[in-house]
Structure formats: structure tokens, C-alpha cells
Amino acid sequence: MDNTKERGIVAYTRLSGLLLKVSRFQPSAPIAMVEMLAQSIEIAEAIVDAGEATVKEATID
Fold first, then answer.
1. Average pLDDT, stretch 14-18?
2. How far are the Cα atoms of 1, 2, 6, 31, 48 from residue 38, in angstroms, in the given order?
3. Cis previous bond, 30, omega within 30
4. 40/16 Cα distance (integer angstroms)
5. pLDDT at position 61, please?
6. What angle do the packed helices 2-24 and 31-60 form, to 10 degrees?
7. How many Å separate Cα 45 from the centre of its chain?
8. What integer best gives the mean pLDDT of the chain?
9. Of 8, 17, 29, 48, which has the fewest Cβ atoms less than 10 A away?
10. Helix, strand, or coil (residue 22)
11. Which long-range contacts link 42-45 to residues 24+ away (Cβ below 8 Å)?
């Protein structure tokens, strides 16, 4: 569970940092930065899905 929590924190930190960087480029951020943001969102979604499965598994045991 601690590993799951830590992975979530890392993903959240990465996303919030990228969002801050993107906001500095408004109204249009460089394509590379937007692509990094999209990739980070996909990774965060995968981490959330894995975390949910871990929590479900832990509650069953």
C-alpha cells in the first residue's frame, strides 16, 4: 500500500509541475510540452487503475 501511495504522489507531483509550466506559456504552450502533459496524464491514469486494484485486493484479504 505504501508503494501505491508513493506512486500516486509522484504522478500528482509530475502533473502539477507540468500544469504550472504549461500555464506560463498561455495562450499556447509548445507542442512538446502539451505532449508531455498528455503522456503524464496517461501514466497517472494507469497508476490510479493499478492503485484501485491493489486496494481492492488488500480489502479482500
1. 92
2. 26, 26, 21, 10, 15
3. no
4. 10
5. 65
6. 160
7. 6
8. 89
9. 17
10. helix
11. 43/11, 43/14, 44/11, 44/12, 44/14, 44/15
Q: Which residue has the cell 486496494?
A: 55
Give the integer Cα–Cα distance in Å for 44 and 12.
Answer: 7
* Placement of cell 510540452 in the chain: 33
Residue type, 5: K
Place of cell 487503475: 49
State the DSSP code for 40. Answer: H
Q: Give the per-residue pLDDT at 3.
A: 85
Q: Alpha helix locations (H) across 1-61? A: 2-24, 31-60
Give the pLDDT confidence of 24-46 residue by residue, as tens digits. Answer: 887 888 999 889 999 999 999 99
C-alpha cell at 17: 509541475
